[in-house]
Amino acid sequence: MAKSKTQDLTGILRKFPCFPCVLVTTENNIITIGMVHIFSFSPPLVGIGVAPRRYSFNLLKQSKEYVINIPNKELLAQVAFCGEKSGRDYDKFKETGLTKQPSIILKTPSIQACPINIECRVIKEIETGDHVWFIGEVVAAQIESDYKPEESILYWGGFYRVPGIVIGKRG
According to the per-residue pLDDT averaged within each range, which of 9-13, 19-23, 54-58, 143-147 is highest? Predict the structure, then answer.
């Protein structure tokens, strides 16, 4: 198959395969994040990319902590709302009906409805173009015993998705 050059370098990045889509809490705000990645297994480090123009950016800089809450497909409306509306203008917990639950270690609340909550303390900030990566060391986590990864939300090319079928295995 022939390939053609493209001048739309930003657009080509939007062709990346799916990214996990998570709800990140910091202080009393929720932000939908598609830029989330594991940076290390030992020690456990997970990073989130946040644009400086976002309301959550300064909250993260001040608090130096966040919780990655992994939603399932039943929370799609709340995920979309938290990604489209700013915490400057809305109390996202109130507007979405999501319930705060105390985190195990951090002051930042977790989201009760999310089957996984990963508590992170910021250990490093890396400026990368239009986003800053907040690298967090995982200090605690909770997972529901009946968690179904196939019901997690992925984000790709402007669409929310759920994982498809397994087509191979490592090793």
Answer: 54-58
Q: Where exactly are the structural domains of the chain?
A: 20-161
* Range list of H helices, 64-168: 76-84, 92-96
Where would I find the beta strands (DSSP E) of the chain? 19-20, 22-26, 29-33, 36-41, 44-50, 65-70, 100-101, 110-111, 116-128, 131-143, 154-156, 159-161
pLDDT value, residue 155: 84
Question: Which residue's entry shows tokens 């809450």?
Answer: 69
Which position has the token pair 């053609």?
4
pTM: 0.90
The Cα 40–Cα 166 span in angstroms is: 24
The mean pLDDT of the chain is 91
CATH number attached to the domain at 20-161 = 2.30.110.10
| 155-164 pLDDT per residue, tens | 877 888 887 7
Cβ contacts of residue 27 below 8 Å, gap of 6+? 59, 62, 63, 108
Radius of gyration of the chain (CA): 16
